[in-house]
Amino acid sequence: MKTKIVILVLALCTNCFTLKAQQIRTTARATGYDISDNLDLDAVSSIFAESKNLEEFENRLNDPDNRISNLDLNQDGYVDYLRVVETTDDRNSLVVIQAILDEDVYQDVATIEIERVADGRHRIQVVGDPWIYGPGYIIEPVFVRTPLIFSFFWGPRYVVWHSPFYWGSYPRWFYYYKPYPTFRYYRHVNIYVDRRITFNRINERHFNITNSHFNDIRRRDFADRHPDNSFENRHRESSNSGRQIQRQSSRTYDNQPNRRINSGSSSRSNENIRQEQERRQVNQQQQSQSQQRREYSRPTQTQQRNQSSEQQRTLQSRPESREKFRQQIDNSSRERSVNINQKSRSRSEAKQNSQNTKKSESSKKEEKKESRERRRE
């Protein structure tokens, strides 16, 4: 009995130790991630560049099949819907991404600032809200090609976009879905990050727009109600720039083999990419030209027929070659007749051979019958 009691006590102690170790592991894993890790602004800028307009951008941002967002700020167990609103000043656009958290409760998540420089170039910056991402979280993407959405901002049919959706009113295709664990979301969202874009981390904002326009659409209701959950209170020891570097270095692209992010300076990377594209275009042009030459060098069946008919016409038109042409026709007709006679002879010979074999077989059968009858007698 004593040995059984000792065994039970040891088993209980080991279970307690394992439970405590699991709790320590889970808490350490949970504290390793932050709210800002649940919306990757690199993926946001990638789908922004691929969209036709801001309405399509909002649809892609909230599509449950894509899961670009994993934010659950109000902690109701479901991912928050992100609406998109915009304001302009001298054709410079300020796009604000806001989370709908309750009735008339919104929270700015990030802003996309688009500026058109005097020489016709453009500059875009994606800035995270300081309450979520901390101060100075600025990404300046450098695109290889001009994004498709820029034709919307500077096109003739441009209209300022303001999302019509609010708390309790969402698109028909949208439905609530539960967020992934942060580490799983971080692996999943890499599929939507365009590796051809260079994401530069900078500390300065280059955007000329008056504060009055920004204050008209700015909403920080949730941050004002929960000041203790700000980024500075969550990360008193770590800096924001250090977290950006760690995030960029730890990013993996196993799920997208055809994409890449260029490291180093933006000018050098863009020059290398452009050179590669030019080389590919030159190779494609050379291949297409060689194929066309081969096709032109090879005469088709119709061309061959036309050539033969033309030769016959020329032969018939010349008086000297008429006799040759007639002789060729006579020779061909004679050859045909000879072939026909040979075929007919071969057929007749085959018939005679078959008849002779049949007669010999019948004579052999009669001889066998006669021999049998003689034996019987």
Give a quick summary of the entry:
The protein has 377 residues and is of the alpha+beta class. The protein is built from 13 helices and 6 strands.
Give an account of the 3D structure.
The protein folds into 2 domains: 28-263, no CATH class; 264-314. The protein is 52% helix and 13% strand. The protein contains 13 helices and 6 strands. Strands 1-2-3-4-5-6 form a 6-stranded antiparallel β-sheet, sandwiched between helices. A hairpin with a 2-residue loop joins β2 (92-102) and β3. It is elongated.
Strand order of the largest sheet: 1-2-3-4-5-6
Care to count the β-strands?
A: 6
Q: What structural class should be given to the helix and strand makeup?
A: alpha+beta
The total tally of domains equals 2
Q: Major beta sheet, specifics? A: 6 strands, antiparallel
Average predicted local confidence, pLDDT: 75
Give helix and strand order, one letter per element, not per position: HHHEEEEHEHHEHHHHHHH
Using brief descriptors, characterize the structure shown.
single chain; 377 residues; alpha+beta; 2 domains; 6-stranded antiparallel β-sheet; 13 helices; elongated
List the helices and strands and how they pair.
Layout: H1 2-31, H2 41-50, H3 54-62, E1 81-89, E2 92-102, E3 105-116, E4 122-128, H4 130-133, E5 138-142, H5 150-153, H6 182-188, E6 198-202, H7 211-217, H8 221-225, H9 231-234, H10 240-250, H11 266-297, H12 301-317, H13 320-376
Antiparallel strand pairs: 1-2, 2-3, 3-4, 4-5, 5-6
